[in-house]
Amino acid sequence: MDKNLSSILKNSILISDVIGEYITLSKRGKNFFGLCPFHEDTSPSLVVNNDKKIFKCFVCGNTGDLITFVMKKENISFPEVLINISKKYNIKSEEISKLENRNKITEEEREFYEINLQAAEIYHNFLFEKENKEAKDYLHVRGLSDSEIIKYQIGFAPRGFETLLNLMTNKTNIFGDNRDKKLVWEITKLLKTKLVFLNDKGDYQDFFYNRIIFPIRDEFKRIVAFSGRAINNKITPKYLNSISSNYFKKDSILYNMDNVWNTSLNKLMITEGFMDVILSSKYGIENIVGTMGTELSEKHILKIKSNNFKSIIISMDNDKAGINSNLKIGKKLLESNCNVMIVNPYDEKLKDLADLANHLDNSHNFIATINNYVSYIEYLINQTFKNPLLVDDKIEQINNIALLISKYSDISVKNQYAGLIASKTNLDKDNIVELINSYQNKLENNILNENNFQKKQIFSKNDNIKTIFNVNESNNVSKKLLNFQEKEINIILIMAINHEVAKLFIENLNDTIFLDRNNKYLPVLNIVRKLSSKLDGVYSFKDVIKEMNNNKLNSFFLSKEIYKYNGINTLFLKNHGINLIIFLIKEKIKLINERYSQDITKASNNSETIKILKEDHFKIKNDYKIIIDRLNKMIKKI
Question: How confident is the model at residue 127 (pLDDT cuts 50, 70, 90)?
């Protein structure tokens, strides 16, 4: 809403008229020139252009529009500028009225903001006192200069439990009669701000002590809360925030939002902590806010969307938890129709943007690293398939991502993402595109929603398996057996459609790897063996179907499933088949060990029976050792 209003103002008022209220401008051609008010200027270096609606100083580099000029000159918030300019130039709208109502405060609210402002000034002054050198040194070690400390009004709450309390109430009369009466507060009013509290002993004391203090402001630049950071790791918690109140709720405030809520910023970067924000700002990243360690809420998103940022860039901590946060926040913003980008992981030794800034110690390199971002979908694909996945997990992830991609209207974008998935998973790109298009068709026809989300599978899944074996939940067939059968079917399917894979398997393995010798599909394995034993050993899927028909076998299984593997390269089929076999062997060994333990228990003290059981168990385990050795040989061949 605020940005819509700012557009109205910029289109209704000449920027030269607004800036001309503050400095003398002289016109030369299409431009206006004047002395820059943001540095000591002796020769007019500020240029104003009405057509472009911008100003720029060619000496100090300050640039922006009429809104940012007034913000910088008056040191007031973005909303306040909108209200003031609208009033001055008699521009009325419903949005202005809403903004004015948001900015109106009661006497109690005024006192709350005034107390916080005064406390911030006291904390800030404490930081620069000699006895608090340890706190200031800590900030310097973390990479902050005095310039950043002053800009963000960082302060320090000393070790005493009543330091702020005594100053705010003038309890010790250290100011004497010279103290401004308005700046002396009753204890009841300080309690409302949560800066002091009544302890268990019945005494009033400061809420913050022995902590570095970060003031937290709303979009109107009003201090609504504080966060206190321990100066060493022995103090817990590391961060202590003001108690939640009507003025401060972490689910509706973002750190540094007061500096970001303006019209010149089309991109917004979201990070985690105070230091991340401040050190990024040190190297020129001004359009950045911090979540202060809390999840991005719906209220946060509404505020972000109200400013119409063209892109949201996310960069949480540079570890596994941070990657998960990137994805979680990105998904929320994407679902809210935001254009979401995520910064790629950087040096794993660096845990966050603050570490990155200190490590690079160079504005150019820091910005280059931050600008290495990709779209949410690309980041999701890269992170999802970064490490090998079990087949079923891979299926699940591909379908989830395909559904997200299907919502894009740009065909080239969809093809790009499909190609990326294919390259990460060794799947055929055309199959991925087909999957994406199937979701798009359902979405366009209002068939697909969260309640009836039916995933089209690239590989076989239990629904088809149940059809083949006429299995339903009421049968006494265990889910574990059903899972085994699924894996076995996939092995035979791979062999049926790719003679290279079949030859490799037949040369090294036999059907002892199968847990269940079900007549529904083992005959297919025999057909594959027969075709592979021909002189050239080359066959096609059609040859398999033909042999099945000749032998009066039901071809439903293969004909329904074949498209799921069609077009997938041989290397993937080999690896996938081996993974399935390894799964079967491991599960069968588990079953054998379980049965062996049961039989030994039943045999009790019958030594002869126990001897026979042990011999059989040894022989069976040795047989499977031979199979595992053959698998290792297969892997080497691949």
Answer: very high
**What string of DSSP letters covers 242-294?**
PPP-SS--TTT--BTHHHH-STT--EEEEESSHHHHHHHHHTT--SEEE-TTS
H-type alpha helices, 473-569: 479-497, 499-508, 522-532, 541-550, 556-561
Cβ atoms < 10 Å from Cβ of 424: 15
Residues 543-560: pLDDT tens digits? Answer: 887 887 787 765 555 555
Instruction: Give pairs for 438-446: CB < 8 Å, separation 24+.
Output: 439/402, 439/403, 439/406, 440/406, 440/407, 443/406, 443/407
* Cβ–Cβ under 8 Å, residues 95 and 116: no
What pLDDT score was predicted for residue 46? Answer: 96
In this structure, are residues 50 and 18 in contact, taking their beta carbons and an 8 Å threshold?
Answer: no
Question: Which of 270-279, 459-468, 622-631 has the highest average model confidence (pLDDT)?
Answer: 270-279
What pLDDT was estimated at residue 551? Answer: 76
Q: Are 309 and 265 in contact (CB under 8 A)?
A: yes
**Cα 156 to Cα 126: distance, rounded to the nearest angstrom:** 6
- This prediction has a pTM of 0.65
First to last CA, the chain: 60
pLDDT at 564 over 70: no
Query: How confident is the model at residue 559, as a pLDDT?
Result: 56
CA distance 406 to 442: 10
Nearest C-alpha neighbor of 429 from the set 417, 439, 441: 417
Question: Do the Cβ atoms of 484 and 587 come closer than 8 Å?
Answer: yes
Nearest 5°: CA angle at 362, between 358 and 365?
105
DSSP class of 344: P
Residue type, 573: L
- Given pLDDT bands bounded at 50, 70 and 90, which one contains residue 499? confident
SS3 59: coil
The DSSP string of 182-208 is GG---HHHHHHHTSEEE-TTS-EEES-
**What confidence score (pLDDT) does residue 344 get?**
96
Query: Phi/psi at 311 (nearest 5 deg)?
Result: -140, 145
Q: Which helix (H) or strand (E) holds 320?
A: helix 320-335
